[in-house]
Amino acid sequence: MSDRFDEIRRQIAENDERVIALVNRRLELVAELWQLKAELGLDVVDPDRERRLRERLASANAGPLSPGGVDRLVTALLELTKRELGA
Ligand SMILES: C=C(O[C@@H]1C=C(C(=O)O)C=C[C@H]1O)C(=O)O
Questions:
Q1: What is the pLDDT of residues 42-57, one digit of tens each?
Q2: 32, 34, 76, 83: which is deepest, by most CB within 10 A?
Q3: Cis-peptide into 64, omega within 30 deg
Q4: Residue 30 Cα, ligand 1 centroid: separation in angstroms?
Q5: Residue 33 C-alpha to ligand 1 middle, in angstroms?
């Protein structure tokens, strides 16, 4: 295969590893926030906050991911967070 082919694959792998590291960091931060919410007697799940998160990320998206793609990604992220943290 060409050098460019290998280089593209290397960059894809590097990006994928960054995505995993960022998702792990996100989980740590949400876990910390939920601990504080629990101490304050608040519900950990906040549908209004989730709606605003969805709107903010839709606005921040510069593409090529489609608006529908952003929405699916946010849905997956929120579901994953709740499953991992046991909400
Ligand atoms: C992170 C929060 O808690 C919950 C988890 C969210 C998330 O995974 O991003 C978003 C909203 C809440 O349902 C928050 O209230 O900000």
A1: 999 999 999 999 999 9
A2: 34
A3: yes
A4: 7
A5: 8
H helix intervals, 1-87: 3-39, 47-60, 67-85
> Residue 63 corresponds to which tokens in the numbers above?
């593409």
Report d(CA 20, CA 79) in Å as an integer. 16
Q: Which residue's entry shows tokens 């101490």?
A: 39
Minimal-distance CA residue to ligand 1 atom 5: 45
Specify the amino acid at residue 4.
R
Nearest to 57 by CA among 43, 44, 45, 68: 68
CATH superfamily of 3-85: Chorismate mutase (1.20.59.10)
The ipTM (two decimal places) reads 0.89
Domains of the chain, residue spans? 3-85
- CA–CA separation, 76 vs 79, rounded Å? 5
